[in-house]
Model the fold of this input.
Amino acid sequence: MRRTTWLLSVVTMWATLIPSLVVAQDAVGVVTTLDGRANVARPTQTTPLALKFKDDVFGRDRISTQENSLVRVLLGGKAILTVRELSEVTITEDAGRAVVTLPDGKVVLAVAKQRMRPGESIEIRTPNAVAAVRGTIVAVTYDAPNQLTSVVCHTGECGYQFQNQAPVVLQPGMGAQNGTTGPVSPTERAAAVNVAANAPHSEPGAETVALIIENGQRTAATLAGLVTGTPPNFALGTSTANPAGVVQPAPNDALTNVPTSFLVPEAQGTPQPQPPTPPTNNNPPPTTNNPPPGPGAFPAGWTLTGVGSVIANLGSIAAPPPPAVSTKAGAVEKIQNGNFGTGMALIFTGTGSVGETTSTLSQTFSVDAGTALVLRLKYNFLSNEFPTQSAAFNDTFQIRLLDPGSGTPIQVAQETHNTSFTPNSVSPETATAGGFTIDTGSGVTGFKDVSFSFTPTGSGSAQLVFDIFDVGDTGVDSAALIDSVSILTDPPLFFVKKGETLTRTQTEPLLRLTSTPSTFDSAMVVCCGGRVTLAGPLLAALDSDLTVPFSLLSVYQSGSLSTSTSEPLVRLDNGRHTIGSVGLPIFDIWGVSSATDAQTGLTLGTDRPLQHAGPLLETSNATVSAHQAVRIDTALLEATAPLLNLRNGSKLSTAADAVQLSYQARVASLGSLVKLDRSAMVVASGAALNVGGGSVLRVTGDVFSLANGSTLSVMRGPLVSLSGGSILSVNGALIGFGGVGGNTVSVANSLCPCTSIGGLPVSLTGGAVAANVSITGAIKNGNLGALNLTPNAAVIRVDGAATKVTINGM
Done:
């Protein structure tokens, strides 16, 4: 990570963070980055010790770095000192000043001026000169053999004095060598502090210093062994890089093996281009068959194999509007021309496709290993096979990511003739564009949004691949429309990845906010074999509005998070919160491994990314606007409390399915899945519960519990949707009413004609049969609530011949 550090006296600086430790330890800082090897010599030790990440730094400690090594030390939340290779420094305090003594080597110091108090300064002393700064980035080098001090003032003003000469003020862009001062060229100025994007151990530019100090401060508060039990008040609201508010991690006393990547990386620049190399996978590399330049040609970056073009519309189907999303840290776009101009991409299986059966659209892009990324796009799957063709003719559209590290394709989404359409998802017209024709009444899913989190396991060239192919025949065409494709970086507050562990034994929330409106991209990402163990919750926010464009928690690619608390993993008391505006759920959980389940015969996820005994989300008098609440993919989750527990006048609204088991998920819930007490939940589009992709959900208790005048409204979808051979088994009611009554469940859609089963209208599509649906006692305590349906509305949608529902009403 790139960090910079500010030094202050222990009394004025460190006391603001942990006053109870000042007298006892005299710690002046904490190591936030250690790259390579470094030693620390202490007056109380007879021999030097190996310096380690998150070690405390004490007054008069002498730090020495070895070749190709670097150390960064945060002191007081006001600056970061970078000690570069083959350097030696000693840090002390002197009459209210922090002093860095540099007998040999090079240091870079960045200071957040707005965090300095009147009269505070820091000095860097060499054997023949002193540089004093208050708010700047400065590089100081001392060449011991030649007794030469060199100073470059990168930003802000720097005081400088050589031996007995009169002090001078160096303006930004000025430098000094011993007693000579003058301007420094832009190249020399950048090289002095290594701000070039491709420089080894590069330092940040001035515009990101405040954010870096904030991040380093989080490192100190989270990792430095603060044992006072009181979260420090960092007062970061004045940071120009974080105008929206403050993030206050709780103190920790037992974090182990914690890497610097746990904290938010600084704003990232555009990655350096790399020569594209085809990723390793089981499929042969596609051959390029781009259309000639002109109308319909794919823009730069895209490679087409087979048939397709860029079209403005397909009859009444027009390109969807591009999404507008603002992220706090400034995400880096990695896909070229993802909006296809004013049109949209079309690929199909007709004449001209490979073997007249397959077409592929792909783009190669550069990635860095261990970076949290989010793929976003919109697609519309169309097939003339629906509804007339049998299940044997199962044309398929799939989206894959090819990881340069593992070479293994990651499936992002899949649509098929057999699973994707309903009687209402059909084309109202015959339309032709780009060589493809959709017939009236044929299958059209409509545009679907995809937001998919992933982390490359290796650096190099990754690939995004869209495939459309025939299954069972070559005579009936299917197609895909694709638009609004982007890949964004997600800088989380805590990022735990391959080979990293975070263990916390305190029962306080890892992140606690009180009366502190805050904006951050995501709270925690755990991926790629990373391990997090918490004794308490992840997040508790009181009277603190949150704006979080990505997820609060993402656990994927064999990452895991486990807790030993039954408290809510995330608790929001009061406030208005916006989460997942890029299209991600509040909790995004997906695994990798799967196996055949002996009981059902389905292939189900075996990874346990999340193990938690309490609710995932509990709110009290809070208003939460989210894209989605929970998404689980190819994973095993055992819930002993409601996933969502809304209390005391709370309101949760989701733009898509509230709870989604998207693919090969296996979830067991002891008790209600969703519990509302004097609260409301609104699902704008989709289902309140969607079980798809051959997933299994078993609920012991009522699926939805409403008490004391609660309301659950599903505006454009069923209450429950099942597809793809999925199974729902409930030992309880579908809806349980309680409290003083006045509860309401409202469902609006046009999925009927339906079959009445157990008193509920059930939509049976895609070969689903009534024999696979058994419903008894669907509603508990019907006198305490009402189920309101619009005309032709289905409460449950069952799609697919192997999809099953059992509600026992016990």
